[in-house]
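dude i think i finally got it to work??
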Amino acid sequence: MNQIKKTSLNGQQQKLIELMQQINFGRISNIPVVGGNPELTADTIIEREIKLGGQNGTRPELEKDDFTLKQEVLALLEHLTGMGDGIIRHLEIKHGLPFLIRIEERAA
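look at this
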C-alpha cells in the first residue's frame, strides 16, 4: 500500500489539512469545492470546540513540513475529488482529522 505524504498534495489541499490541525476539535463550514479542490474563502466559517481544563492546542503534526496522511484525510480528499464542484456545508474535526462531512452538490 502506497503511503501518501502531505507534500504530494496541492496547496489548497495542504491549507485545509493545516487548518484542521490548527482547529484540532471543531467544525469548518461553507467550503466551496471547485474541480475537487477545497477553496477557503471569506465566507468559510471556523468553529472551535474548547474543552475547559483540557488540551486545546494545535496538533503536533502542524510543526512538521511533511508526514504520511492518515486514512481519514485520504477519505476526505477522495470524496472531494469525486464530488467535483459543490460545497462542504460542514466538516467536523476531531483530533485534527476529518470526522464527518455534510456536502451540497448540484443535481445537474
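The mean pLDDT is 91.
im so relieved honestly
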